[in-house]
Amino acid sequence: MQRLRRFARYWDLVGNSGNFLETTPLIWSKVKQASSLSPKNNEAGKMPVPLSPFHAFLRWSDWLHARVKRTDSIALMRLMELLFEFLTAELRLDPKLVAETMWRDYQRGGRFDKPGFMKIFCTQVNRIHLATPNPLCRNARRGIWFDAGILEQNSRSNKKARRVCGGLR
């Protein structure tokens, strides 16, 4: 029962939070490649390839709980690092692909400070427009573009765009 509660809590942190829209499907990206789940076909000591997204996320939640031994008070940056480690070390996904996907998710939240563990993988400047801006945020209504920490505004001066929704103050 505790295992299912952990699953639900970690699903809230990763799947339902909106912080990992593009990254979450990477957790079950290996599901399509699995033909059968048989201990005979797996190498000794390796975890079997899950047959469903549920089992793939359960594997992630078991791995995460083994690492942090808690379900609360996990900072977003720490959760990102752990998710990156799981996707690259455990699932053996391409680190550059994972980092770029996570960077787009991170920017979507209005953040533009690049996390340290991503800097070596995301070298190019990514430009993202807030696809679903907060309607209460003045800058989002005006169409602010986030460009590697530099704010631009469509046809307006940058002087008025000093405040970013939840960012610089």
Keywords:
single chain; 169 residues; mainly alpha; 2 domains; globular
Share of residues in helices: 25-40%
Can you tell me the number of structural domains? 2
Average of the residue pLDDT scores:
76
Number of helices: 6
- Order of helices and strands, N to C? HHHHHEHEE
Write down the oligomeric state.
single chain
Provide an overview of this structure:
The protein is mainly alpha-helical. The protein has two domains: 2-113, no CATH class; 127-160, no CATH class. Helix content is 39%, strand content 7%. The protein has helices spanning 2-14, 24-27, 53-68, 76-90, 95-108, 138-141, and strands spanning 127-129, 144-147, 150-153. The protein has a three-stranded antiparallel β-sheet with strand order 1-2-3. A hairpin with a 2-residue loop joins strand 2 (144-147) and strand 3. Helix 1 crosses helix 3 and helix 4 (76-90) runs antiparallel to helix 5 (95-108). The N and C termini lie far apart (44 Å). 16% of the residues are buried.
